[in-house]
Protein 1
Amino acid sequence: MQRESQITGTNFDFVDAMSGEEDFAIAFTANVMKLHGKSLDSASNREKYLALADLVRTFLSKRLADTEAAYRQEQKKQVYYLSLEFLPGRLLAANLLNLGLQQVCEQGLRRLNINLAELIDQEEDPALGNGGLGRLAACYLDSMASLGLAGHGCGIRYRYGLFEQRVTDGYQREFPDNWLKEGRNEWEYRRPEETMNVRFGGRVRTIANGKLHFIHENYQQISAVPYDIPIAGYQNEIVNTLRLWSAEVDVTYQACTFDRHGKGCINVIADKHATESLTDTLYPDDSVYEGKLLRLKQQYFLVSASLQSILRKHVVNKADLRLLPEKLSIHINDTHPSLAVAELMRLLLDEYGLGWAESWDITTRTISYTNHTVLPEALEKWPIDLFQTLLPRIYMIVQEINERFCRELWDMYPGDWQKIKAMAIIADGTVHMAALAIAGSHRVNGVSAIHTQILKQKTMSDFYQLTPQKFLNITNGVTHRRWMLLANPDLAQLICEAIGDRWIANPDELQHLLNFAHDNSFCCAMAKVKFANKLRLAKYIQAKYGIAIDTCSLIDSHIKRIHAYKRQSMNVLHIMDLYNRILDNPHADIVPRTFIFAGKAAPGYYKAKQTIKLIHALAEKINHDPLVKNRIKVVFLQNYNVSHAELIIPGSDVSEQIPTASMEACGTGNMKFMMNGAVTIGTLDGANIAIWEAVGDDNIFTFGLTADQVLAYYRNGGYNPWDIYHQDLRVKTVMEQLVNGFFPYPEEFRAHYDAFLNQGDHYFVLKDFAQYVEVQNKLANEFINTELWQKKCIANVAHSGIFAGDRAFAEYALSVWDLAERPPCLRQH
Ligand code: NTF
């Protein structure tokens, strides 16, 4: 009772606090009847969930309308965050928390003998993103609303989300993620009256009568229908929107022609489905660019529909277009929406009749860009012919931008063709999207200090030299409301009891927890919370996979996309080595460990899929070996999503963050583990470095090559992994085990073996292996000293304040979007 009122408060406007639960129960029962024509007794949990979500939506609706009206009246500067991906996670629990309804709802349902947690479990977890980039976008939406800033997401309403992963015999299989089974999502508002039309293909005719006019003809026009998902701020009455666009064709007025084949309306309907397939699926590649026509089409569809509707709203409000940069900001999340630069130019030039210089000035002052990766395979470069055929007018504009840009470069660097070519937006038969994004933005940011440094010194060094004032770093942040209050309510409660609840509004206050590092009763209570979370996780694993895990064991989790640079395979090699130590000495004193893996591999990424197979082969071998005596368990959780992360992170002791240094732009899982008291084992890359700086050497386990060392190796042609093979018996043994029948699949892991030994070990797994094993041993020894370990956990939570999304977002507000008001969490600094 006390706990809930402390961390959620109650803000239920149509009932007073005393009778709230009862009225809630009545309203809920009536809603089940209204929605399903059923009494509560005969309604299924899914039906109850839908009725509850619908009830909660009524609270959101009013606030959504009020927020919109208030913004209009105050003429507040708006931010539009354009992203091809959003991973919002389940919304019911988040909305209850943010609306302050958690307590009244939980208790009202309890009166009806309904367990809220069971209804929460009925919600689909929308998988409209691949991983970190999409989840970050969702965290920022939460922060924008919670800080009371007018920030909205613009994305695509994919009919099917990221594929559902099922593993059979260790092999990943993909199934469509049919998240809109019922045809709609319970949170969204369809707004057909705000439909925009997006044009593809055709040709452009130029007419010169005093001024040049560009007539776009013979194009295919596709309707973009917006669906708005309300995003509630944390107990502040604000509700912003996430606007998702869907490709739709209205055939009501389309005559069916009955030709001699007698097909009639069949053709019309078939065409409708073909056109609408534009927004059917999310591309499942993470950090890899897929040069497919449909992807470019999706990018333009999102950008064009969003910008048309943003400009229309601006003009309807009778605002001057020249004031656009003062009235709104358009942010592009990685290069995927960078067509926004050309589309904004098109709208200003062709639709609103402005001149080039003025349009360019408005565009560059309105748009800003975040880069999220330096991996070359993720850099988008579209072939000219494909680009030009699909977007003829946009291509003309990109050509003009490129010409003017190159002229400027020529003035700066006369004769330096090589430099100009390296920076050109159109070069080598392709359109370079990152170059377009940089040229068209007034701010370009990286997502961690080291990543920004690599952008400045390497990946974008020419651009940095040209316009250093554009570049800045904003280290990512995540919402502690979802990742602490919702995912780990017992920890949140414990913290409130110790230091009060001000940390919820200002996570820097978590520092006060350091005063409790020597307080036995607090340390005990914290250990108890962790144990309860481990138990919850263990129960899930037992129920789902029939694997019993030891809740006293060290739970070590590696959960993220499966990718060679994230080095799940190095984790596997360490577990093999640990196992070998038991085989060599069955009585070896080994700290009991549970290794948890979860993550999807891109369907076309053979080696990543084989890593999943390898993890399963290892689990099969170890989990059933009587010699191991349950001292090691390996578990792979299928179909990793936001909800799984909410379960695994609070129940973990150790957070695996072991990418090849220089490759992980930032990482955000690392922050979520940290704020839940897990200790990081990590390389000095991305935000791991910031975590290390925050917690100090004693509270993190770092190892391996630094980014500078890795980059130096690349410059000098790599290293020879066979040297390590010959020097380190442990490495030799695990390498041989990949191919010598140790696993009952002799040729299955040949690709891994070859990548490590015969192809130069591009990700430096063998190079970092010895140090990794060493810190793993150190970590296990420190884990058994529970007092010492508890202090590490506290230090991690206490120093996690700077990784709150509110801090990151506030930095954007101040340094990128130039929002007039200072967000509250920056006011005190
Ligand atoms: C990801 N980038 C990075 O790989 C992560 O390190 C980072 O934490 C997140 O972005 C969020 O910034 C991508 O997913 C992409 F698409 F850019 F490759």
Note: The CA atoms of residues 416 and 718 lie 30 Å apart.
Protein 2
Amino acid sequence: MTHFTGSVAKPCDFVLFGTSGDLARRKLIPSLYQLDKAGLLHDGTRILGVARQEMSQEEYLEAIRASLGQFLKEAVDDDVLQRLLKRCHYLSMDFTQPEGYQQFHELRQSAPDNVMVNYFATPPSIYGAICRCLHSSSLITSSTRVVLEKPIGHDLESSKVINDQVAEFFEENQIYRIDHYLGKETVQNLVALRFANSLFASKWDNRTIDHVQITVAEEVGIEGRWSYFDQAGQMRDMIQNHLLQVLSLVAMDPPVNLDADSIRDEKVKVLKSLRPINANNVFDTTVRGQYSAGFLKGQPVPGYLEEEGANLNSDTETFAALRVDIDNWRWSGVPFYLRTGKRMPFKCSEIVVYFKNPPHNLYRDSYRQLPPNKLTIRLQPHEGVEIQMMNKVPGLDETQRLQTTKLDLSFSDTFKDQRVADAYERLLLECMLGNQSLFVRRDEVEQAWTWCDSILRAWGDSHELPKAYPAGTWGPVASVALITKDGRSWD
Ligand code: NDP
């Protein structure tokens, strides 16, 4: 197996605020290990882990070993581990109090030119306090970067507050907002598929495409995070960020080049073109659901309101399906159907592009309507690209018999020797390199919130409860009606 190739960033001090937390242990530390293994961390790069609890340097290194032992999806290579551990230093402090930040000065004296990349794996409510302390401790220069985890707010107003707090001390070109979907290999391939293949480039609009479906289905339920999820719901947790980011990449116009702002300029235009959903059209264009008890893979699973810590009166949605219209020249008349939910029959994220039928049906004796050509981009699992087309069944019979067949490009079969990097590996590397293409700009976040807030308001004002669906099914029956009333069906 070979690793993905890439450039080595200049030496940096990667400051991991919240190094003892779930995200750091599960994703970030294993990703740093993989980057080190691939030779993509500069020899001078250091990892400065910070959290509140008191820990000696030895205890911290032991904690890193334990995280890798638990979360790395392969055996730990001792040489790589030793190299990684040499980079790691632990600092204990309360992030909201400036006193502790003096410790950085002592460490940085030995490598003053290292670029400081501050990763906030902490609750967003303290992003502002950390920025203020970094500033008051004179730790911010024009090369200092901050990486922000989601959620950036729970609506437009609260996201503006967080963004303003950070913007008081950092310019936009120093701020890296994570949406880990953008780091997925398959999501990056979407851009290549669209803009490196003339086959699609000339066919990507309302003259050829009938509609698009984007599905992000999770098999898991709440995974012990009931109170966090209940504040958010599927709209805030999945649609406002991941699904709208994927939709923007599918629908955007060709960027001038692959620079961060060229791509983000095009994505934000799509977000601005989304037709508003409000009290006038919310019932025609959206369905919210909440799972009840059911069966998954033959095993009984509890309903959302029966999960540990549940509030019985919760009306939070664990499923949402939407018909989205993009009011611009390219997509006029082409609906995008989005659906995402928890406790679905299996985990799957995919984009399916349905093409229009040929203008005239030569096979009308056998087919009243020809099955459409379909392009399926599987984001996970079984990453790959599939095209459904019609072919003649070989044979000498008089009538021309056709059959739907699939051209299937499975990434794991095609790129056998290439390891597919985790999204966080790519994103950590990019923020060390100083490339913002895979990070979300402030105007994108705010535009997405503006659109989602209107739906959330309409749902709230309607006082209608989410529709129940048994765990292990594809959502409420109403979500089927949402698409069949347009004469279409879910893939
Ligand atoms: P955790 O609660 O598990 O970890 C929080 C970390 O922040 C701990 O290391 C904690 O240190 C530290 N911390 C919090 N407050 C302070 C403080 N005042 N001073 C010093 N240290 C502090 O959170 P997660 O790791 O789950 O999440 C971190 C961020 O990532 C959040 O914004 C979350 O929304 C986001 N995120 C998380 C995902 C996940 O899968 N976990 C997925 C996507 C986003 P100590 O223990 O010492 O108090």
Note: The radius of gyration is 24 Å.
